[in-house]
Amino acid sequence: MKLVLLGSTGYHPSNDRHTACFMLPGSGVVFDAGTGFYRVRDHLQTKTLDVLLSHAHLDHVIGLSYVFDVLADRLPERVTIHGKKAHLEAIEQHLFAAPLFPVRPPIDLVPLARRTALACDAKLTHFPLQHPGGAVGYRLDWPDRSMAYVTDTTATPDAAYREMIEGVDLLLHECYFPDEMRERAELTGHSCASPVARLAAAAKVGRLVLVHINPLATGDDPVGIQQIRSIFPNAQVGSDGMAIDF
Q: Which of 54, 77, 125, 168 has the most other CB atoms within 10 Å of its CB?
């Protein structure tokens, strides 16, 4: 199974990173539709596309307005956007309001149900996250592997969603701030480094990839990876274009 990171930052794009977008090309699944969503067209392999939205903040949904270009060369049989009902309503009413975007793209907005089915052979589980305006985390289980996507929340080792990510082979988790900005992280509903590492260790995940990095962070180590690895060794910082096999 391959996961491609199409956008690994949050809030706004930087010179090095676009905002949140992560794709499983072989399964036709995309997590979030930030500014990196235009890159979906380079990896599209399936006849269907399922986009799983964590929430409706613009850095996670603005890419839905790129759909005409994404699908310019080939039109899948179905493009479904999954998310909380209130988030989808906000997208319909505001992002696709005629003064902002006059021609609605060919997508279906479908609220998450207790059992939401995808075209691929993975079992989908979704769970609530604490974040201003609300957010959703996701877990996908195949017969022989599993992964979880958690962004825009404040991580703690005993977070309410810990049991939902227990034992996954791959955890894709936000890490917006370094440890010294913990108060800022809690204020804005985001995570800093060490608590994410402690959560990964407590949940006994196989591998941790850090995403939704602060776009203002510069240098080769934007989050303090050595500190993170001292707590959870199998961790790395995600970057745009990275392909992860799991």
A: 54
Per-residue pLDDT of 194-236, as tens digits, reads 999 999 999 999 999 999 999 999 888 899 999 999 999 999 9
Do residues 134 and 86 lie in contact, with contact meaning Cβ atoms separated by under 8 Å? yes
35 close to 74: Cβ distance less than 8 angstroms: no
Count helices and strands (H / E) in the chain: 6, 13
Of 126, 187, 200, nearest to 159 (Cα)? 200
Please name the helix (run of DSSP H) or strand (run of DSSP E) that holds residue 187, with its range, or none. helix 182-188
- What span, in angstroms and rounded, lies between the C-alpha atoms of 106 and 148? 28
Sorted by where each starts, the structural domains of the chain and their CATH numbers stand as 2-245 (3.60.15.10)
- Cα–Cα distance for residue pair 73/229, rounded to 1 Å: 42
Count of CB atoms situated within 10 Å of the CB of 72? 9
